[in-house]
Each structure stands twice: as structure tokens, then as C-alpha cells.
Write a structure and sequence with these properties.
Beta-Lactamase, Arc Repressor Mutant, subunit A, two-stranded parallel sheet, 9 strands
Length: 263
């Protein structure tokens, strides 16, 4: 597993990482059988006409992505990195359609480029990035996640220029493969997401955060702790970085939800 700590935090993992974790929690697990299932998924998707499968579990607060747990295999790491680091998901019309309907969304570039908002800079950037990576059509779907703040999305792409080939047979193949991949990857992601939530603070940081969660301003916290506003503001900025959030409202929300540990 490797972690890129810029916004959003991008956490790469491999199928081997996930399978090793399954063996850790269940030493009697039949790993060769699971490895064979994953190889079969890959082959069936290629036979159906898909060239990539990107599996991502997005940890969110509102619509902001805090962390993206992303599987190395089957996808295009160059595209996924650009997609997440440039936050192209924020204006991705495919995700908008998925959120609105909750159903798998088929797409092709000519169709997307004909939409009214296709002239927006980041939307144009998304389309050009897709085209540069040979991703001319595909399908995107969401899968159930054990927590409300974790969204699992699978995106499959093809070099085909339309979607007429995505018939019931191809859709069935996608659903079967997606459920298999998610079933084997999800326990590992749940464990890593839980570990990432363990934030260890100094006593002074914990005192500041406790008061912030209760709604106190920096000035009020400084008065309560016999400290300076400048020092309290510095602590708040440090805490925002520790929780990987952008403002004090998000900090208060996540701190109240996750808790913290004092060193």
C-alpha cells in the first residue's frame, strides 16, 4: 500500500494487499481460489469489450473526497491519478447521472461532449484526459458500502466509440465481476479506513479540539485556556491538516464523528 498525502489523500493498494488481509483475519481461507476468481473477472471483462476497470472507495464529508482507496490492477494509474488530483470528479457528468439515478450509467464521449456544460474548463479537461487515455466509452456504477461516508464506485472503459455493444450480456458480466472484486477488496478497505481515522493529539491540541467541537471560537478558546488567539489559530490549522479537512466546520464534524486519541 502506498499513500499520496496531497488533497485528496490517494491510497493505492493491490489485490495482493487485500488478499493478504483476508488471510490475516482467516488463516484457513482458500487464497488460490480467490486469485483465480480475480483472474477470471479480468478475462471476462476483456472478452466483453472493456479495457480498464477502476475500483475506488471514496471516503467523503459532504461531496468532498478526503481519501480515495484505489486498486492498482485493471485500471489506468495515470488517468486515475490525474482524475483525483485535479478533482475532475467534482464536475464529472457521469457521476452526476449516477447520483441522480442510482443506476449504472453507460456513456460515450460524443454523447458527453454534446451536453450543455461541456464547455466548462474542468469538464473539457476530463474529456481530453479520457480521450488521451483511449477511454471513448464505458460504464460507471456504484456499489453498497458499510458506512454512509464511504462511496464505492467502479468505472469501466473501452476504446469503442459508442455504447451499442454494452448489451445485457456485457452488463451481466460487469455486475458479476464488480461484486466479486468488491467482496474481496472491501474488508481490507474497511480496515485501512478505520486505521486512518485514529488521530493522535497532544494534550493541548486535544483541549483545543474539545472546545472547538462544542462551538467555541478561537478567541473564546484562548480565554478559556489562558493562551493567545495566535496560538489557538495555529493549533486549529494543525488539526485541520491532521483530519485532512479544509475548514473548522468540517473539522468539528469529523472530530465529533471519529473522536481522537491523546498521546
Amino acid at each position: 500500500m502506498t499513500i499520496d498525502d496531497e488533497y485528496p489523500a490517494l491510497v493505492w493498494f493491490s489485490q495482493a494487499d487485500a488478499l493478504a488481509y483476508l488471510r490475516e483475519i482467516d488463516p484457513g481461507i482458500d487464497l488460490p481460489a480467490h486469485e483465480a476468481q480475480l483472474r477470471e473477472c479480468r478475462e471476462r471483462l476483456r472478452q466483453a469489450g472493456f479495457s480498464t476497470l477502476s475500483y475506488m472507495a471514496l471516503e467523503t464529508v459532504g461531496r468532498r473526497v478526503l481519501r480515495a482507496y484505489t486498486m492498482r490492477e485493471l485500471g489506468d494509474m495515470s488517468f486515475t491519478t490525474a482524475y483525483l488530483k485535479n478533482r475532475l470528479y467534482e464536475t464529472d457528468p457521469r457521476l452526476n447521472s449516477l447520483r441522480e439515478s442510482g443506476l449504472p450509467v453507460t456513456w460515450h464521449l460524443d454523447q458527453l461532449e454534446a451536453r450543455p456544460n461541456s464547455g466548462e474548463p474542468r469538464v473539457r479537461s476530463l474529456f481530453s484526459t479520457l480521450r488521451a487515455h483511449g477511454m471513448h466509452s464505458g460504464l460507471i456504477l456504484g456499489l453498497p458500502a458499510p458506512r454512509a461516508d464511504l462511496r464505492v464506485a467502479l468505472s469501466l472503459t473501452s476504446e469503442a466509440i459508442d455504447t451499442r455493444w454494452i448489451d445485457d450480456r456485457a452488463m451481466g458480466c460487469v455486475l458479476a465481476a464488480s461484486l466479486t472484486v468488491s467482496r474481496l477488496m472491501q474488508p481490507y478497505i474497511d480496515d485501512r479506513a478505520r486505521r486512518a481515522r485514529i488521530v493522535t493529539l497532544t494534550r493541548e491540541q486535544a483541549d483545543v479540539l474539545e472546545r472547538l467541537v462544542k462551538g467555541s471560537s478561537d478567541h473564546e478558546i484562548a480565554m478559556q485556556m489562558s493562551s493567545s488567539v495566535h496560538r489557538i489559530t495555529h493549533h486549529v490549522k494543525t488539526l485541520q491538516k491532521a483530519f485532512n479537512v479544509e475548514n473548522r466546520a468540517q473539522l468539528a464534524y469529523l472530530a465529533a464523528r471519529w473522536g481522537w486519541r491523546q498521546s
